[in-house]
Design brief:
The chain has 16 helices and 14 strands. It has an eleven-stranded mixed sheet, sandwiched between helices. The termini are far apart. It is globular and about 65 Å long. Helix 11 runs antiparallel to helix 12. It is of the alpha/beta class.
Length: 499
């Protein structure tokens, strides 16, 4: 009887703990979610008012309260963008659902394995890529269940993209209290992080132990948030996969306003247009700008002056990260390199080896990888190594593939399903044992970093901290091991000419 009584008390305690998260009070009201595989999941939680009508091209406004308990068991609409059509290596697993898509898109999602709000689990907030023109948190490879099982509270959210998220205009700057315009997508990200700071404890998360993470434009967003004075106090660690925004050529507020004004229509009229009509406008802008508010200076200048928010950093890029699918002859490539790099051209050509036109697809992939992604994350790693902890990786596993997909190898975005242990969502790949092992290792590295700022842990291959003496880089492929950064010499050349 005594044992039975103890068992009853234990079961009652477990049920009571789970019940604590069945209904949660957040900004705007109460919500409920679903419970699966010991994980509480809440999808489609509003974190700001719908940015529609007069709120189009304004900073996100407070959530509109609701009555009763909102059922949060499906993703909110993705931000307005073109239809999610597979292309290149990006099959539907890497794209948003075909519907819903709407300007009313400011929703977030939470996965947690906590049994009680008092647990203070580390929090990871994932920011999607998509060239600042597309993407959304409902992509299958961004699912948070596996990371929640590793003890994290996992959060993802939507932000405005394209003309809706990044258009500057003289009239918008004039109406803004900050006298700035253009970075609405970044303001959405900051609003989501502030929501996390206010509300995540109710999900068993620790608002003082938040890591922001992202890939491609999501990694560039992470870079912007680390640079922005508005990000202060909202996170302590950063994960940037294949993306950063160093360079002196960022668009200024004036230049951004000129691109907006070139549409030839006032803001009042533009706000009356349907989302579909606005999407067809030939707007020439793209992504974050130096708006004097979210980003008071270029990211290069902010980091050079040491004004960025201090974080621990995990960053890297993929073996086949290049996204240049254009064609060029070997002769034209050699001429372009000679004209761009002068005395350094010979060294670059000896590395890329554009010996014939047949070689050019591989040459372009490697050059695009290094120029667009490698040099960016290499630069950030170097800056970070002088100021704090940084761990650098190269993802080299060529995803198992058939047919058209074989040629893409370790493609841009290919590491995401491994890093978050979501291989099961990538239906087209005939994964092997080594892939599941790599996914377990990588997701454990990522989870450990979120928890402590150090990816190392029991049973994992040692990952050495990066510095500018050894350039220790973790190779994430069929074998997991530390090597000196393979492309360091060529990245030094590219960095010298870009910055």
């Amino acid at each position: 009887m005594i044992k039975a009584g103890i068992l009853l008390l234990l079961v009652s305690g477990i049920l009571s703990s789970n019940a604590n998260l069945d209904t949660i009070k957040v900004d705007g009201g109460s919500i409920s979610g679903t419970y699966n595989e010991d994980i509480h999941i809440y999808k489609g939680i509003p974190f700001a008012a719908p940015p529609i009508g007069d709120l189009r091209w304004k900073a996100p406004q407070p959530v509109i309260p609701w009555e009763g308990t909102k059922s949060c068991n499906t993703f909110g609409p993705s931000a307005v963008q073109g239809p999610p059509t597979p292309f290149g290596p990006w099959s539907e697993e890497y794209l948003i659902p075909k519907e819903p898509i709407s300007e009313d898109c400011l929703y977030l999602n939470v996965w947690t394995g906590a049994k009680s709000p008092s647990e203070k689990r580390p929090v990871i907030v994932y920011i999607y890529g998509g060239a600042f023109a597309g993407g959304g948190s409902a992509c299958p490879v961004y699912d948070g269940t596996a990371m929640a099982k590793k003890g994290l509270v996992y959060v993802s959210f939507n932000y405005r993209v394209g003309i809706f998220g990044f258009m500057a205009h003289p009239e918008l700057s004039a109406e803004s209290p900050a006298h700035a315009s253009g970075n609405y997508g970044l303001l959405d990200q900051i609003a989501a992080l502030k929501w996390v700071h206010r509300n995540i404890a109710a999900f068993g998360g620790d608002p003082e132990n938040v890591t922001i993470a992202g890939q491609s434009a999501g990694a560039m967003s992470v870079h912007c948030l680390v640079a922005s004075p508005l990000g202060k106090g909202l996170f302590k660690r950063a994960i940037a996969e294949s993306g950063a925004m160093f360079g002196k050529s960022m668009t200024t507020l004036k230049q951004g306003e000129e691109k907006g004004a070139a549409l030839g229509t006032g803001i009042a009229e533009l706000r009356k247009l349907s989302a579909a009509a606005l999407l067809q406008k030939q707007w020439q802008g793209r992504g974050p700008i130096i708006d004097t508010y979210v980003l008071p200076e270029s990211l290069s200048d902010i980091f050079e002056a040491g004004k960025e928010n201090k974080v621990d950093l995990l960053t890297g890029w993929n073996e086949d990260d290049g996204v240049d699918f254009s064609t060029i002859t070997a002769a034209d490539f050699k001429a372009d390199i000679a004209g761009e790099y002068g005395n350094d051209a010979a060294k670059l050509l000896s590395y890329y080896k554009p010996d014939s036109d047949v070689d050019m697809p591989g040459v372009q992939t490697r050059y695009s990888r290094d120029l667009v992604f490698g040099v960016q994350n290499y630069t950030w790693a170097g800056v970070q190594a002088r100021r704090g902890k940084v761990y650098v990786y190269n993802f080299t596993r060529k995803l198992p593939a058939t047919g058209e997909y074989i040629k893409y190898g370790a493609f841009h975005t290919g590491e995401v399903a491994y890093a978050y242990n979501n291989l099961k969502f990538v239906k087209r790949c005939p994964f092997e044992k080594v892939d599941y092992q790599l996914a377990e290792v990588m997701s454990s590295y990522w989870a450990n970093f979120v928890k402590t700022g150090d990816p190392n842990g029991k049973g994992l291959p040692a990952w050495k901290q990066y510095d500018e003496k050894g350039y220790a880089t973790q190779i994430l492929g069929e074998q997991v091991k530390t090597e000196r950064l393979r492309t360091r010499d060529v990245l030094e050349i590219l960095q010298r000419h870009l910055y």
